[in-house]
Amino acid sequence: MPLLSEDAKGVYVITVTPFTESGEVDWDSVDRMVDFYEEKGVTGLTILGQLGEAPKLTSEESRKIAERVIARAHVPVVVGVSAPGLAPMRELADSVMGMGAAGVMVAPPWTLKTDDQVYAFYASVAEALGKTPWVLQDYPLTTNVTIAPKVIDRIVRDLPTCVMLKHEDWPGLAKIGALRATSERGETRRISILCGNGGLFLPEEMRRGADGAMTGFCYPEMMVGVVENFARGDENRAHDIFDAYLPLARYEQQQGIGLASRKYVLAKRGVIASPTLRKPGASLSKADIADVENLLARQARRLTEIGA
Per the annotation, does 223 bind a ligand? Predict the structure, then answer.
């Protein structure tokens, strides 16, 4: 599988981690999940992210999941390797790259407070990872680390193994525009920008210069449809598809039960056997399930109306 590059485009879906009802990794569901995402047309997979419940996994489980997914996938796989220290980060990165991963993703630790600290951290990451291509995960709503466009530009100029930005700032549309402006002026390389936040702003992000999505949603075909139609120049069709799925995507972005609702729908679709989150984790109430079922019914009717 080719290595991740700054030309990457499309949808690199953030995968869930399937668990049995007793909280063990469900390996059969892992296989089924990989097949499902590929059948829906994703460009790549991103595993061991925050919504993949990576912090709840042991180091051995993380390696085994990476090995299983990489061996089964026919698309590039990016692996989240964020860790409190560089040594475990490098250890996991070396391991998954040896398995055939396309690249790795690194989020900043919450302790970073200044621009210089952010730059110094990623300079250390680049040194520790050597030739491994990596994704800068910019998700201040979770990490509490704000990375200004000028800092990202500096990282891109100085650290050639940074090939992608996972843009997950909110509001962040102006940031995409600022980053694209500096590359268009020739002041920095043009790297890939894939966006997160459940795809809630995907059409606007594409219009500002994003190359696609790197996020999760129980209907990855929404993101695939939006990105493919933008690539064809059919923004109206992209918006029609997006609008049909938006109510459910919005529901999925709730703190606490968002991931539980995503897993509920994936289980309902037959992708994973159980919607279980590993403890500590939320579960849906009867009222929550009624909400989701109502949204699914309305979504189905709307998709029929637009012929999608």
Answer: no
Instruction: State the Cα–Cα distance between residues 62 and 53, nearest whole angstrom.
Output: 10
- For residue range 153-187, what is the model confidence (pLDDT) as tens digits? 999 999 999 999 999 999 999 999 999 999 999 99
Q: What's residue 1's pLDDT?
A: 77
- Residue the block writes with tokens 């159980």: 274
Task: Calculate the CA 164 to chain-centre distance.
Answer: 12
Is domain 10-232 in CATH 3.40.50.300, yes or no? no
**What are the residue boundaries of the structural domains of the chain, listed by start?**
10-232
- Give the model's pLDDT for residue 256: 85
pLDDT digits (tens, 9 = 90+) for 249-293: 999 999 889 999 999 999 999 999 999 999 999 999 999 999 999
Place of tokens 């989240």: 80
